[in-house]
Structures are given as structure tokens and as C-alpha cells.
């Protein structure tokens, strides 16, 4: 209690003394009186404060222990001359920008998906950029504010300069005004320019990172990126019924004959379905494409070769022979389609003129009575009781018996056809005046070279080449001497229709041909295997494209007349209804090829590369020029400001309001400035009032300097 009373007493003395001084106006003559008055006032204040501090210290309990707060304060530089905060801010600013410069090259051109953090790269760059800019702005602002003290320490100038520095320390607009005022004639402009440029610091950093997408190939797998590539085709089975030969085939002398045992065929229903699907008129181009696996919807494969079924149609109309005559309506040898005996007319000894067109080598003909065609395709008769034929066909399995495909060593089947003109079908032209065309179409094994790619889930394929090279030493008769087998093959024109068990058939693609089409070099010729079991398909086609039982040798006629007619296979209806036979056979070939490749997709898939749309991180390095430039300029300015302040021996007051209040204008300058009545007059007065930062007994302060004094100092 005594100490408190003593303290109050001391404070009371200080306050009463201050009041006594303030209650009466100072009476002094000249500068010496003013200084002596101020000296006396400060001496009395210092004495009172010293007594107060001594009293307080005597009543404080003594202790040798320091609190954590005191220890932490000792670790941080303190006092009027330290720049720890500004230097720390510069270090933080540099570190943040360096972190950005480290991150950018690491992730440049890398997929966006490779970014490991839940926070986006843009967010990280934004945070680092904001930290760098804010730290640098803090340091620059402090150093610009310190510049006003340094400025007046070195020269006399009007008080408006003090205001310009203060405004510049508060933001870019004030810095721009300071920059304009300096006219780049003082290094302070570096700090002002850096502060102005900081406005674009973060926007430019944001523009550094962009994203762009591109398709990138990745290695695929059987489950993610594969397509059918048939190197081995094995379907169906042959089973021998008896080991003993039950039939013989004659051979040219001196080879005698060759015998064989019967066997049963188990067909692959997938192949059968593919044939009928090919003849269907519901097919589209998309339906005939093979299956594939592409997890991304965009995949590619290198060019490759695969077993396929090919087709070809050729015009053989030049082989047609034409004849005409008179025939009885019941004469089935001269007229193609069956005549209905149940017509209402008397048909005995009823004759008409006819015209007959024939391919003699194929035992194929088409003939109709002269005149217009019947009105309907099926069971339709003219008033004379005659039916019209529009198309006739015959299937051939031995390429040596064809007209246009005698060189084909891989023939599956060929069909020769005689076709009436569309004008005759439309009843626009008499039969004797119409033109009949002959066409021969074939299906055969081949090797296709493909370029396949999937784009947006859709398969696009290009056939680069198609080949029918056969290894003539393959497909030999089992359990027979090679020489005898070759003699038989030559005798039957190397037909693939198997009356005897044989070895597997091999197709060959020369490496030179493959390389010329694909640009891919391979060490050896490519070989493709078609097992003997697979040729069971040929036996089924031979029966499916012919009449049944004892009538198998008869030609196929369209339209099919049901009454009294031997049953004909379904294929004749599709051929007769087709308006483009070439397209029809291409569809059948594509359907069989699809079946082959779909099988290999399960057994021997061809793996390609998947394409993914990858978004990559791009870096526009040019946008870093502004942030780096502003950082360098700001750091240089701050260092120069710190060194200048220490060189002048000034405290680091920066923008301290307390320092401005304590060491601002002296009494005379303040009195002159107070003569102004409003803000405009204050500014005018400030422009005419020169001051300089000089030392005094109470510390440095802005002392009014007259024009004459300023002139003398400048001369000195």
C-alpha cells in the first residue's frame, strides 16, 4: 500500500507539473529560451519517470526464473534498429516463389491425374503466389514508409514529400504517384514500381498453368484391348465310321486307284449361322464387323494379317449360247420352270415359241416362252398357262470346273448364275427381246492384311491387301505316299472338298508382300493354319447349295414353284431376290470372316494399344517474368533501404504512427502548418514548408528550414 501511495504521489507531481506548464503560455525570447524551456520540461519528466520505475521495481517480487513468453521475446530481435520482420517476409516471399519454380518443372507435361494431393495444383500455386505477394508487399510497404525518414535525413524538402511516401506505403495507387513524382531519378522508384507491378503478381501466376488434352497410347491387355486375329482356324470335326476303305477313286496311270473310308461330319453351328446370316437382307455394315475389346473406346493395333473369307463375282456372259424353237408347255427339258397341269386350259399338244440361253460347260440354262413375264413370281401364270424363270443357278465345289476361278486353290464354293433382265421382270420387255446375263460368284479362303482402329467405340478397318497363296505341300492325304497324294490333288484340281482324311491346310503370306503393305519387317513368311476339321464346312455348303437327294445334280430355279417341284435350298430365294449379287456375296464373306475372327478373339486375341484422352499440365513460362521481376525489384529495393537506414544511423521506424507523433514536425513547423484552415490550404502550405530530419535533445525531428537556410546548406 505504501508503494502504491508513493507511485500515485510521483504521478501526481508529474501531472501537476505538466498542467502548470501547459496552463501558462511559454515566455521565451528567441531560440535559446525555447530550448532551455524544453530542456527543463524533459528533465523534470525524466526524473519523475525514474522515481516511478524505481518504486515499481522495489515492490516487484524478485525471481530468477524467466517465463516462456520472455524467452521467446529474447529470441526475436527487438528494438528500433531491427529489420527482422521485413527480412523474414522477404525470405518467405522468395521461398514461396522458389517452391512454385520447383513444382512447375516437376509436373510440367505430366497427366493431371498424376497430381497426388486432394487439393488441386492451381490451388497450391494460388496459395504460394498469394503468400509470396503478400510477404513481398509487406516488406516493400515498410521500406517505402522508412524512405520518408531517410529522405529528409539527407536533404531539405517540403512536407508534401512526407505525405507522398506515406501514401505509397499504403497501396499501388500511392506507389504510382510516387513513381511519377520521382521520374525514375531515384532508386526509391524501384520500390514504387515493384509495388505497382505486384497488382499483376497473382493473375500472372494463375496464367502460368494451363491444361490441354491429347490422345495417348498405352499398352493394352487381352481383357482391355484386343481384337480377333485368326492364325489358326479349327472348327467342326470329322469322325471315321470305318477303318476299311469302302470307296475308291481312279487315278491316272500308272497310279491305279486310291481308296477311302467313310466319315461323319459334326458341323460348327457358328459357321452355319454365319452363312445364313450373310444371305439375310437384314444385315448392315456394323453388324458384319468383328467383336473387339476396348476399355477406353479408342484403341489401335499395328497392321496384321488374318485368315478370312473373300468373295468375287465376274461376268461370264460371253459364254452364253442362245437358241429358240417351239416347245410343248409340258416339256420340262426345254422350259425351265414347271408348268401347272391344273390350269383351266387344255394343255395337251399346246405349243409356244421359246428362247433358251445356256452355259453349256456348267450344264446351266434359262428358257421361257416368248412374250411378257407372268404377273407374279410364285404360282403366277400367264393366260396361256406358262410360268416365267428369272434366275437359274448351280453350285460348284471344284475350281477346275468353274469358268472364272480355275486358278483358285482355296475355293470354298462357286455359283454360276443366269439372270433375266430387270425389264423382263417388270413386264416392260418381251422375253425374246430381253438380255440375259451370266455371272459367276465365288467364296474362298484368303489372308487379309488389316489396319484396325477404334474411335469413339466404333471399329474402323481397312483391308490393305488380300492374298490366296497356298502351301501346295499341305493338305495331303493321310496314310498315303506324298507322291500319290500330289497326283490325286492335281487330278481333282486341288479341290478342298474332302473325300479323304487329310493333313491341315496352310496359307502363306510372303514377308515381302506383308512388308510392302504395312511397312513392318518380319524375318519369315507368315503361315496360317486351317485344320482338316474346318473343311467340314465345305461339305455342308456343298449340300446346302444343292437340291436334295437324287435331284442334287439339277440346277436351282427362281422363282420356286412349289407344286410338283423338287425341294430347293433356301439360298436360291436370296439369290433370285438380290439386286446386286456382288454385294450379296461380299456380305456372306464378311459374315464368315466375322465368325472366324470372333472365335480367335476367345482363343488367340491380338493385343493392341488403348488410347486415352489425357489432360496434361502445361506451363507458360513467359508469364513468370512479371512475378520474378517484381520479386527481384522488391528485394533489391528492400535491401538498399535497409542498408541506407543503417548507414544514416536512423531507427527503423517505417510507418510507425507513434514515431510520427513523437518525432514529427517541430513546434515551429507544426504552428506554420496549422495556420491553414482546410485540407486544400494545408496542402498548399505543405508545399511551401521545407523541413529536414535533424537531431535534437529529445531525439530527431522534422525541423523547419527557411528558404535562406536551405540555400546556404545547398551551397555548403
Provide an overview of this structure.
The chain is about 40% helix and about 20% strand. With about 725 residues, it is α+β, with helices and mostly antiparallel strands. It folds into 3 domains: about 1-55; about 80-210 and about 635-715, no CATH class; about 225-320 and about 400-605, no CATH class. Strands 2, 10, 11, 15, 16, 17, 18, 21 and 23 form a 9-stranded antiparallel sheet that branches. The chain is rod-shaped, with a radius of gyration of 54 Å. The protein starts with a helix and ends with a helix. Keywords: Membrane, Transmembrane, Transmembrane helix.
Number of strands: 25
Amino- and carboxy-terminal Cα gap:
61 Å
Mean pLDDT rating: 80
The number of distinct helices, counting runs of at least 4 residues, comes to 21
Helix percentage: 40-55%
Principal-axes shape call: rod-shaped
Low-confidence stretches: 1-34, 55-66, 68-76, 339-347, 377-385
Main sheet makeup: 9 strands, antiparallel
How would you classify the helix and strand content by structural class? alpha+beta
Proportion of residues in β-strands? 15-25%
Whole-number tally of structural domains: 3
- Rg, please? 54 Å
InterPro entries: DUF3176
Pfam families: DUF3176
Transmembrane segments: 83-107, 119-145, 621-643
Biased composition (Polar residues): 55-66
Amino acid at each position: 500500500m505504501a508503494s502504491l501511495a508513493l507511485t500515485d504521489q510521483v504521478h501526481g507531481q508529474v501531472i501537476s507539473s505538466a498542467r502548470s506548464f501547459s496552463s501558462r503560455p511559454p515566455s521565451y525570447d528567441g531560440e535559446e529560451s525555447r530550448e532551455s524551456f524544453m530542456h527543463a520540461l524533459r528533465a523534470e519528466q525524466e526524473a519523475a519517470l525514474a522515481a516511478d520505475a524505481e518504486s515499481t521495481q522495489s515492490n516487484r517480487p524478485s525471481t530468477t526464473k524467466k517465463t516462456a513468453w520472455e524467452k521467446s521475446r529474447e529470441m526475436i530481435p527487438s528494438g528500433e534498429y531491427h529489420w527482422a520482420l521485413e527480412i523474414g517476409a522477404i525470405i518467405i516471399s522468395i521461398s514461396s516463389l522458389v517452391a512454385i519454380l520447383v513444382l512447375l518443372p516437376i509436373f510440367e507435361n505430366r497427366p493431371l491425374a498424376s497430381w497426388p494431393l486432394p487439393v488441386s495444383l492451381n490451388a497450391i500455386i494460388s496459395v504460394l503466389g498469394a503468400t509470396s505477394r503478400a510477404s513481398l508487399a509487406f516488406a516493400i510497404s515498410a521500406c517505402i514508409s522508412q524512405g520518408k525518414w531517410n529522405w529528409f535525413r539527407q536533404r531539405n524538402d517540403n512536407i508534401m514529400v512526407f505525405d507522398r511516401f506515406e501514401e505509397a506505403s499504403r497501396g499501388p495507387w500511392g506507389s504510382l504517384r510516387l513513381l511519377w513524382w520521382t521520374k525514375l531519378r531515384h532508386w526509391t522508384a524501384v520500390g514504387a514500381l515493384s509495388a505497382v507491378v505486384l497488382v499483376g503478381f497473382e493473375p500472372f501466376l494463375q496464367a502460368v498453368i494451363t491444361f490441354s488434352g491429347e490422345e495417348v497410347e498405352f499398352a493394352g491387355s487381352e481383357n482391355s484391348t484386343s481384337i480377333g486375329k485368326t492364325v489358326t482356324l479349327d472348327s467342326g470335326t470329322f469322325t471315321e465310321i470305318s477303318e476299311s476303305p469302302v470307296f475308291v477313286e481312279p487315278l491316272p496311270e500308272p497310279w491305279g486307284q486310291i481308296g477311302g473310308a467313310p466319315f461323319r461330319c459334326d458341323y460348327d453351328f457358328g459357321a452355319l449361322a454365319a452363312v445364313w446370316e450373310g444371305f439375310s437382307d437384314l444385315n448392315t455394315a456394323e453388324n458384319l464387323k468383328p467383336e473387339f475389346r476396348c476399355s477406353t473406346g479408342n484403341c489401335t493395333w499395328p497392321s496384321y494379317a488374318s485368315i478370312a473369307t473373300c468373295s468375287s463375282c465376274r461376268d461370264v456372259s460371253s459364254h452364253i449360247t442362245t437358241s429358240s424353237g417351239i416347245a410343248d408347255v409340258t416339256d420340262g427339258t426345254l422350259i425351265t420352270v414347271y408348268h401347272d397341269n391344273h390350269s383351266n386350259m387344255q394343255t395337251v399338244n399346246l405349243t409356244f415359241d421359246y428362247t433358251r440361253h445356256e452355259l453349256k460347260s456348267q450344264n446351266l440354262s434359262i428358257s421361257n416362252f416368248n412374250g411378257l413375264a407372268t404377273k407374279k413370281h410364285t404360282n403366277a401364270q400367264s393366260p396361256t398357262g406358262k410360268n416365267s424363270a428369272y434366275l437359274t443357278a448351280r453350285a460348284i465345289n471344284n475350281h477346275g470346273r468353274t469358268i472364272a476361278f480355275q486358278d483358285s486353290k482355296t475355293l470354298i464354293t462357286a455359283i454360276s448364275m443366269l439372270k433375266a433382265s430387270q425389264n423382263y421382270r417388270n413386264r416392260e420387255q418381251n422375253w425374246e427381246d430381253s438380255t440375259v446375263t451370266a455371272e459367276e460368284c465365288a467364296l474362298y479362303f484368303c489372308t487379309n492384311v488389316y489396319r484396325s482402329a477404334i474411335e469413339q467405340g466404333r471399329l474402323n478397318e481397312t483391308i490393305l491387301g488380300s492374298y490366296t497363296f497356298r502351301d501346295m505341300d499341305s493338305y495331303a492325304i493321310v496314310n498315303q505316299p506324298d507322291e500319290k497324294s500330289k497326283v490325286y490333288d492335281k487330278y481333282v484340281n486341288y479341290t478342298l472338298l474332302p473325300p479323304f482324311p487329310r493333313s491341315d491346310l496352310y496359307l502363306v503370306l510372303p514377308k515381302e508382300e506383308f512388308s510392302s503393305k504395312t511397312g513392318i519387317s518380319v524375318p519369315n513368311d507368315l503361315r496360317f493354319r486351317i485344320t482338316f476339321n474346318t473343311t467340314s464346312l465345305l461339305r455342308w455348303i456343298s449340300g446346302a447349295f444343292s437340291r436334295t437327294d437324287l435331284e442334287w445334280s439339277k440346277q436351282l430355279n427362281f422363282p420356286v414353284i412349289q407344286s410338283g417341284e423338287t425341294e430347293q435350298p433356301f439360298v436360291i430365294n436370296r439369290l433370285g431376290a438380290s439386286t446386286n449379287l456382288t454385294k450379296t456375296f461380299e456380305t456372306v464373306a464378311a459374315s464368315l470372316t466375322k465368325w472366324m475372327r470372333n472365335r480367335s478373339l476367345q482363343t488367340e486375341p491380338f493385343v493392341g494399344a488403348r488410347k486415352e484422352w489425357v489432360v496434361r499440365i502445361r506451363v507458360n513460362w513467359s508469364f513468370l517474368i512479371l512475378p520474378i521481376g517484381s520479386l527481384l525489384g522488391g528485394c533489391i529495393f528492400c535491401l538498399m533501404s535497409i542498408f541506407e537506414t543503417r548507414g544514416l544511423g536512423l531507427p527503423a521506424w517505417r510507418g510507425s504512427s507513434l514515431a510520427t507523433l513523437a518525432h514529427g514536425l517541430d513546434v515551429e513547423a507544426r504552428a506554420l502548418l496549422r495556420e491553414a484552415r482546410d485540407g486544400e490550404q494545408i496542402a498548399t502550405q505543405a508545399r511551401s514548408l521545407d523541413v529536414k530530419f535533424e537531431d535534437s535533445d529529445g531525439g530527431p525531428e522534422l525541423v523547419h528550414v527557411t528558404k535562406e537556410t536551405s540555400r546556404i546548406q545547398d551551397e555548403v
